[in-house]
Amino acid sequence: MLLENKVVLVTGASAGIGRAVAIGCARHGADVAINFGRDTAGAAAAVAAIEALGRKAVAIQGDVAEPATARAFVEGAVAALGRVDVFVNNAGICPFHAFLDMPAETFERTMRVNMHGAYFMVQAAANQMVKQGDGGSIIAMSSISALVGGEYQTHYTPTKAGVLSLMQSCAIALGKHGIRCNALLPGTILTDINKDDLADTGKRTYMEKRIPLGRLGEPDDLVGPTVFLASDLARYVTGASMLVDGGMFVNLQ
Fold it and tell me: Which family is this sequence assigned to (predicted)?
């Protein structure tokens, strides 16, 4: 119960990594507020799973691309659960597209969700933590894509590099308030974002062969690293980045 009696907020938590992390934090004793965009049924299912573990949960709808959503999410979470101890910025999109004919709206939407959304969400959570006066932990889901390129991800990889950089700068800006800021860099995780891309069995097999642990990741693989960074076990860890990729990055040669 590493997060007993803590309140954890997770963005983009109606499915995938966000949902797994939200439920995983509840297993470790946390009450959880989740942000979701459109998947009402998924959000309700996540809340039900958290409550089944004996913890409190609330789902608050909002588009993270809109700055006002960040304030509404944090204020709603505090109203329902009392405070913010841990904030997990997870919401993100990756509509695969070639570079030379990238539509401006696709680039801009990806930037607004992944980068602008992270900035304003983290800012809102940090302000609440400063107001509370007893520190906290902020964790952002960056990606292995912050470190490597992708032919159909020229709009996506810069946002993930930006999220990594945001955590490094926030670690400096917020350290004096006792707020730790760290980034997780997942490798290829089986989620809705890449299900169409990995429907190509040849590509999936190729990807699996590049991973030393021999398999693609699952959303639950991010739970342990998140709980660690959220907990007091990581009380002297800030400004750090952790690859959660089955060894893929070190095998890219």
Answer: Belongs to the short-chain dehydrogenases/reductases (SDR) family.
Residue 152 annotated to the active site: no
pLDDT 10s digits, 39-66: 999 999 999 999 999 999 999 999 999 9
Q: Is residue 195 among the annotated active site residues?
A: no
Cβ neighbours, 10 Å, residue 209:
9
- pLDDT-above-90 percentage for the chain: 92
| Catalytic annotation, pick one of 142, 145, 156, 231 | 156
First to last CA, the chain: 40
pTM for the full predicted model: 0.95
Given the residues 14, 137, 142, 143, select the one marked as catalytic: 143
CA 170 to chain centre: 16
Task: Identify the three-state secondary structure at position 217.
Answer: strand
CA distance 247 to 231: 24
Annotated catalytic residue, options 160, 206, 231, 236: 160
Q: Is 160 a catalytic residue?
A: yes
Give all domains of the chain, ordered by start, each with its CATH number: 7-251 (3.40.50.720)
Residue 50 contacts residue 83 (beta carbons within 8 Å): no
